[in-house]
Amino acid sequence: MQVSRSLFDEVMVPNYAPSKIIPVKGQGSRVWDQNGTEFIDFAGGIAVNCLGHCHPALVGALKDQADKIWHLSNVMTNEPALLLAKALVDATFAEKVYFANSGAEANEAALKLARRYAKDKYGEQKDQIISFKQGFHGRTFFTVTVGGQSAYSDGFGPKPEAIVHAEFNNLASLKAIINDNTCAVMVEPIQGEGGVLAATAEFIKGVRELCDAHNALLIFDEVQTGVGRTGDLYAYMGYGVTPDILTTAKALGGGFPIGAMLTTTDIAKHLVVGTHGSTYGGNPLACAVGLAAVNTVNTPEVLNGVKAKAQLFRDGLEKINAKHHVFAEVRCYGLLIGAVLKPEYSGKARDFMVAAADQGLMALVAGTSVVRFAPSLVIPDADIVEGLARFETAVANVVKG
Questions:
Q1: Are the C-beta atoms of 142 and 160 separated by less than 8 Å?
Q2: Which domains does the chain have, with CATH numbers?
Q3: Annotated active-site residue in 127, 132, 203, 250
Q4: pTM of this structure
Q5: 138-166 per-position pLDDT tens digit
Q6: How confident is the model over 362-379, as pLDDT tens digits?
Q7: Quick check: is 141 catalytic?
Q8: Is 221 a known active-site residue?
Q9: 284-297 and 79-91 are packed helices; what angle lies between their axes, rounded to 10 degrees?
Q10: Closest Cα partner for 224 from 264, 195, 183, 267?
Q11: Active site residue: 221, 232, 244, 383, which one?
């Protein structure tokens, strides 16, 4: 059967509007569509394909596990889940791990744990959750309400209660809201969907101090920033501020769906048997691939390489901007990059993304006025140079109208 874009309209729920491009093969940082047209991938499946496409370590892990056991459910103990959990515990502040299938599920678990911890320790009244405007934490009803973008949460009836939003990077705004009934503050160290906007070191340090003063848990949503994206294994390491709970997904499986919540023994003990669960969470296939991804990324070679490649991107984008004057700012946090459009191009990020695709470059947007890149952490320098050359042509075409 010939698959075309029209088949999407025929059989799929219309909550997405995918392009007409149908990729069928990927290798490293290159992708080919049905017609054999080649693309350089600066999108990375929205910061998921941390090792590009078909990385031998991930393919090998999947094939090896596929011949052993695929699924058990959490009625049984499985080796790959324990091995990945041990690797995450050894590499981070965490002492305990809970596995899920996505970032939203990891965040759902984190929020439920925070509420349960506060209820057990301080009483029913301590239920307030604070997050930040323009934040994004997933699409379940709980996580989308905690996310600070009402466009995503409106229109589905009554929302979960006791959730309030402060201004990102504004400590006074948080200070005005936080109180002794706050059970948790959830924050992205870098707001990905919100425009690739990083928290300042002072802000994150201040959030930690306010949480401590009010016995509130600090939750870091590192779904997009985790597993090497910023040049540290997790972004909290670069800030020198340790959360109580951390969520991770996207790059954790390098393209295979998996999410995890990391926390301490003292906090974890409040999710007793029966309080939360997932049929697929800790799936052996996912965890085997996840272990290969973490072990491959968590090396000085790859993490230092991220910082070097980030500089190549920054220099290249600034060179493009010197010629075409379209960006007000280039935000570059490792290989999570946001090119903020000048006011005269405000709202046109999608135009740049479409123009890039026409030149054989896969890019992203973060809102309507930021062009976003989240390529493989091991993208060859030559692919960066060639991809930026294609992007420059796209920029020139948008400027020309």
A1: yes
A2: 5-54+300-400 (3.90.1150.10), 57-297 (3.40.640.10)
A3: 250
A4: 0.97
A5: 999 999 999 989 999 999 999 999 999 99
A6: 999 999 999 999 999 999
A7: no
A8: yes
A9: 30
A10: 195
A11: 221
